[in-house]
Each structure stands twice: as structure tokens, then as C-alpha cells.
């Protein structure tokens, strides 16, 4: 998954409506969508059996013949959950503080853009426009924008690309001064995938893992320098 975008706006700006329209448009194009939603309140599980169990257990798995749900009582971070997702693209509703993917602003009034942009906005959507950002009013154009300019960085803030944070690199990508390929955490000589999704790692961690594994392999008969492939099925 290397295409992602967040839909950012304050309460009752129309984020969920736009999210559903965009998912429908991408589905028409046979593009599978993974979605994430940020909320300031707890998700409604009251008066359900799973809610009662989840209030007592440290985590909870819910399974039916057609669905699977997992609930953690503590805080998790979206980059840690992405390897579990199976979509071709990622759509995020909310997430104002996320600095590792671009965003589209849905404004109730023009002055909100100053608080929501953070150098990561590709465009605006809805009834309110700004003087400096492109404005979209067709969901087809928004889908095209996602597919052409959407991206996702690993959120490691490792600094290996020369920027202090992923947000700084993301802002440069949005402005055209850099590209997703400038993220060195995604271009190392070591690639580890979980459920088909590549894990981001900074060069320091890559060197530790690579040298440790190669050091152990060098003691085995039949080892010789070259491309090494290791497959682990859990």
C-alpha cells in the first residue's frame, strides 16, 4: 500500500459523507480500499456482549461467519495497524495530527485552513474554498488526486532522509520539492513484509538486522555472499 490520503476537517464538515462517496468511486474502479477513522469519543459498544467483555479484558476478538473484529483497550498507532490491512489504498477520516500522508481539507470557514493545512494539504473540498489551494467538487477528481499524488510514509521520524520528521519530508513531497522515494526507510537493502506489507525501518535498524542475520548465516555450510531470501510463515 503506497497510496493514502486523509480527509481533514472539524466536526460536521462532511468527512464521513465524502469518505463513503470516495470509497464508492474507487470500488467502481475495482480498487480495494482500507479505511481508518479517528474519533474524539469512544466507539459505541455499549449494551452489547462484546462491549461488556471488552470492558473487562485487555483485548477482544470478535468473529462471525462473515466478519472479524479486534478491539484493544489501550492506544495503538495507525502505522502499526497498516500491515494488517489488505486494501490497495488507504483512506483516513480525521487524523489532524498525522504528518506522514497528504490531506484534503473540508472547511466550514476559510480561516480553518491555517490550522488544518500544516503544509500537507493537496486541495480543498466542499462549499468553502481558499485562495491558495486547488478546489475539487467532483469525487472522480478526488479519486484521481489520490491515485496520482497520494502517498504514505512510515512515520518513523528517523531523520535518515535529512529531515527531522516525516512531516517535514511529507510537506516537501506535497510542494513538489521531494518524492516518496526520498524516504530512505523505504529504500534500504533489507525488506521485511508482514502479510504482504513492507515494514518501514530506518537505515540503523536495517544494518543491525542485516549484519546480525548475515553473521549467523556465515557460520552455516553452503553459505556464500549474495542475495539472501528468508521466508517465515507464522
Written account of the structure:
It is built from seven helices and ten strands. It is an alpha/beta fold and 234 residues long. A six-stranded parallel sheet has the order 2-5-1-6-7-8, with helices on one face. The chain has a two-stranded antiparallel ribbon with strand order 3-4. Strands 9-10 form a two-stranded antiparallel sheet. The protein has helices at 15-28, 49-54, 78-81, 113-116, 139-149, 166-175, 203-217; strands spanning 3-8, 33-37, 59-63, 68-72, 89-93, 103-106, 121-125, 135-136, 193-194, 197-198.
Task: Give the SSE layout.
Layout: E1 3-8, H1 15-28, E2 33-37, H2 49-54, E3 59-63, E4 68-72, H3 78-81, E5 89-93, E6 103-106, H4 113-116, E7 121-125, E8 135-136, H5 139-149, H6 166-175, E9 193-194, E10 197-198, H7 203-217
Parallel strand pairs: 1-5, 1-6, 2-5, 6-7, 7-8
Antiparallel strand pairs: 3-4, 9-10
Helix pairs in contact: 1-5
Give the structure's gist in a few sentences.
By secondary structure, this protein is an alpha/beta fold. The protein contains seven helices and ten strands. Strand 9 and strand 10 form a beta hairpin.
Give the radius of gyration: 21 Å
Give the termini separation. Answer: 21 Å
CATH domain class name of the domain at 3-152: Alpha Beta
Do you know the CATH architecture of the domain at 3-152?
A: 3-Layer(aba) Sandwich
- Average of the residue pLDDT scores: 87
- What fraction of the residues are assigned to beta strands by DSSP? 15-25%
Amino acid at each position: 500500500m503506497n497510496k493514502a490520503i486523509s480527509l481533514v476537517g472539524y466536526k460536521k464538515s462532511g468527512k464521513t459523507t465524502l469518505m463513503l462517496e470516495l470509497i464508492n468511486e474507487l470500488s467502481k474502479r475495482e480498487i480495494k480500499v482500507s479505511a481508518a477513522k479517528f474519533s474524539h469519543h469512544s466507539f459505541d459498544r455499549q449494551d452489547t456482549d462484546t462491549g461488556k467483555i471488552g470492558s473487562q479484558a485487555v483485548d477482544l476478538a470478535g468473529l462471525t461467519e462473515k466478519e472479524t473484529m479486534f478491539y484493544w483497550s489501550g492506544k495503538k498507532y495507525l502505522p502499526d495497524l497498516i500491515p494488517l490491512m489488505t486494501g490497495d489504498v488507504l483512506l483516513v477520516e480525521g487524523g489532524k495530527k498525522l504528518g506522514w500522508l497528504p490531506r484534503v481539507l473540508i472547511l466550514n470557514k476559510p480561516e480553518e485552513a491555517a490550522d488544518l493545512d500544516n503544509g500537507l494539504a493537496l486541495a480543498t473540498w466542499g462549499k468553502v474554498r481558499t485562495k491558495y489551494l486547488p478546489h475539487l467538487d467532483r469525487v472522480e477528481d478526488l479519486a484521481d488526486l489520490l491515485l496520482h499524488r497520494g502517498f504514505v510514509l512510515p512515520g518513523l521520524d528517523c531523520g535518515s532522509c535529512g529531515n527531522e520528521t516525516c512531516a517535514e519530508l511529507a510537506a516537501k513531497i506535497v510542494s513538489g520539492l521531494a518524492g516518496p522515494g526520498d524516504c530512505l526507510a523505504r529504500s534500504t537493502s533489507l525488506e521485511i513484509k508482514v502479510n504482504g506489507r513492507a515494514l518501514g525501518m530506518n537505515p540503523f535498524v536495517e544494518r543491525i538486522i542485516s549484519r546480525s542475520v548475515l553473521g549467523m548465516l556465515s557460520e552455516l555450510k553452503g553459505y556464500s555472499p549474495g542475495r539472501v531470501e528468508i521466508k517465515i510463515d507464522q
